[in-house]
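Form 7-S
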Amino acid sequence: MKIKDLPDSSKPRERFLRQGPEALSDAELFAILFGEGIRGKKNEEGIWEGGENVIEMSNRLIKEYGMDKIFDCSLKELQEIKGIGPAKAMQILVIKEIIKRVNLAEKPIKKINCAKDVFSLFHEKLKDEKQENFYVLLLNAKNKIIKEELITKGILDASIIHPREVFKSAIKNSASKIILIHNHPSGDPAPSTEDLAVTKKIEKAGEELQINVLDHVIIGKEGFWSWRENDSG
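Output:
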């Protein structure tokens, strides 16, 4: 049955207006977001087949993928799901990005006192990344944040990451200290041999430039690892 043929008491938009968004099911919320389901085709007898109204489609998505897993899909993966074209796929990922930004805005951190502050600052941004993202956080003498900068995206490799790229922004912005941050897509923040090699390489360059490498924090799915707090420095 098409949405327009449902009684008003069962239409998501009408229910939203009367009762508010909290009264709607997960499928109904998705139905309002998507607007339309899958158009069917008439068979030889003139009967429509193969279609799904938007609530039916939303229920199928939630049943098959779950509310959390569907937001873990990439743009390409979403478009492989029946009924999800480029527009609907982008709508789903826009929701994910808005949620991430709201969470970041609710926890403004302007000064770094410990590795946990770094984790709080970057966890929401990096926890679901599928690739390693290597950031540098620039600090002044009082550990107040000057700027954060993405240095590389991909596999962390000591032979690829050059100290020049790491310290260029620090010198330009007169930073006295930096903190290295990257994520592990596996979810396990334990450092690899390559992670330690990268840290030692950049720390040595920092000594020559008189810019202190305060820490290297690795972000996992639920926790973090700190170079300094684990006495690796």
